[in-house]
Write a structure and sequence with these properties.
The protein has 205 residues and is an alpha/beta fold. It has eight helices and five strands. Helix 4 links the parallel strand 4 and strand 5. The mean pLDDT is 90.
């Protein structure tokens, strides 16, 4: 069966990035990116939305430095969050949806939590849940198994850690762009020959 790799970029109350993501409040998604991947690890479909924030209407210079996303870009390309989420939901429902949060457990919803937080601002009640899973513990297991001294990573760093960043050059994006990050995760899955059945055995899913 196919599966989803997804990632988000989000903003929050002032100080989120400067404080190292500690004590964040009012997180709000401004990008949702996802790829649908077959069991042969080939991309079957893709989705990428930039979403207009309602709580944080101005993007800080610091956030732009980290992500490359500017206010001008959002004004030109941003769409309504609920519209983007509904498209993501239809794209992903019925499939395992993997995102990445180093230090969290396999059953952690990871970026799914931030999507839920953002949905709550619209009083949007979705009666159906996507099957969110965390891919980061699987990477930790692979690094340990292969005696690789990796003690932490963001999703966009995986391709660089494994010497595969050149494979993503055609995207013309940087890490901390959600669309880059999903392809960075995919490069890592290919490198370590990921299968959903192995993941399920490891984590009892």
């Amino acid at each position: 069966m196919s599966f989803i790799i997804f990632d988000t970029e989000y903003i929050a109350d002032k100080g989120l990035y400067e404080k190292g993501f500690n004590g964040w409040k009012n997180r709000e998604v401004i990008q949702i990116a996802a790829i649908k991947v077959g069991e042969n690890l080939q991309v079957e479909d893709k989705l990428d939305f930039y979403t207009l924030p309602v709580k944080h209407t101005e993007i800080s210079a610091y956030f732009t430095d980290v992500t490359g996303i500017t206010n001008e870009f959002m004004h030109l390309h941003g769409v309504d969050f609920v519209r983007a989420y509904e498209a993501f939901f239809e794209f992903s429902k019925g499939l395992n949806c993997y995102s990445h949060a180093w230090g969290s457990m396999a059953h952690d919803k990871c970026d799914g939590n931030v999507l839920d937080e953002t949905l709550s601002y619209y009083r949007n009640k979705n009666n159906f849940s996507l099957n969110y899973l965390n891919i980061a513990p699987w990477f930790q297991f692979q690094y340990q198994k292969n005696q690789m001294p990796v003690t932490g990573q963001a999703s966009g760093e995986i391709a660089t850690i494994l010497g595969l960043a050149k494979n993503l050059a055609d995207l013309n994006l940087n890490p901390h762009n959600a669309f880059y990050d999903v392809y960075s995760i995919l490069e890592g899955l290919k490198y370590f020959h990921f299968t959903q059945s192995d993941y399920a055995k490891l984590y009892g899913i």
